[in-house]
């Protein structure tokens, strides 16, 4: 069975992410240490001091645009390297939102240093040109949004799971308007730990500055099938406009997964820090077997158990049929 690596985006980061796996897996810890040195060389920032600050709790808000996005990129790529060093090699990759940067690095389309540079500059552009914004995960049918002028006028759709869950984004004022309406209707929602309304008109003022930076980057030839949640299909090359689109356009994860599914049977491995994409896939496959869906790092101190489950599943699949069924 071939492996698909999945990478999540903004809103899935938190302080101390991956700390329990670092404690019990020296390879993962070494990869984080090595990548953190690269981050320091590019940005002058010690991402280790930020993420693993002993004064911070997992529940503390980690929404600083520049730092949280670099941290998410670093953790996801460190986990990708760890799995590949163990012999778990991706046949294809797929990222959503910021996760498309990590996916592009794993696919060989750019170096990790380049991704850090771009993510850091994206954060700087948003900080400079955009008003603060916010995002809400709404636990209700998407028609709640489309049939309501208050929500449509004040926010934009950032993600639709094609079920009882969607994400809206916008300015602080727009999200406050949406929150007031949702409370009146007793509709459950959850704020995401972000500083801006990604995938909404809230970030439009940063477009010119960030695309100028993007257009000065020369990307490599894509070495692995790279599935985008913007285009919803496999893309063979990258240009500067792509990463603006990953920040501005709605996330179309379900359509991208449909494109992957048409090409074979895969083992899906979520390398994000919350298992969000694995959970979305499990919901998507609720009437089918979810035994081919794995997460590793989560906020619940079960990363080592998840890692062992993944390793056991891969090893069992590699065993000869007769030995695997003794």
Tell me the radius of gyration: 19 Å
Structural class: alpha/beta
Major sheet strand order: 8-7-2-1-9-10
Instruction: State the total count of DSSP E strands.
Output: 10
Q: What is the residue-mean pLDDT, rounded to a whole number?
A: 93
Amino-to-carboxy terminus distance: 20 Å
Name the CATH superfamily assignment of the largest domain. Answer: Malonyl-Coenzyme A Acyl Carrier Protein, domain 2
Identify the overall geometry.
Answer: globular
| Number of DSSP helical runs | 15
Helix content: 40-55%
Number of domains: 2
Q: Can you identify the CATH class of the largest domain? A: Alpha Beta
Describe this structure in words.
With about 325 residues, the protein is an alpha/beta fold. It has 2 domains: about 1-130 and about 200-325, Malonyl-Coenzyme A Acyl Carrier Protein, domain 2, CATH 3.40.366.10; about 135-190, 2-Layer Sandwich (Alpha-Beta Plaits), CATH 3.30.70.250. The protein contains 15 helices and 10 strands. The protein has helices at about 20-25, 25-45, 45-50, 65-85, 100-105, 110-130, 145, 150-155, 170-185, 205-215, 240-250, 255-260, 275-285, 305-320, 320-325; strands at about 1-5, 90-95, 135-140, 155-165, 165-170, 190, 225-230, 235, 265-270, 295. A 6-stranded mixed beta sheet has the order 8-7-2-1-9-10, sandwiched between helices. It has a 4-stranded antiparallel beta sheet with strand order 4-5-3-6. Helix 2 packs across helix 4 (about 65-85), helix 4 (about 65-85) packs antiparallel against helix 6 (about 110-130) and helix 6 (about 110-130) packs antiparallel against helix 10. The longest helix has 21 residues, at about 65-85. It is globular. The model is unreliable at about 320-325 (pLDDT under 50).
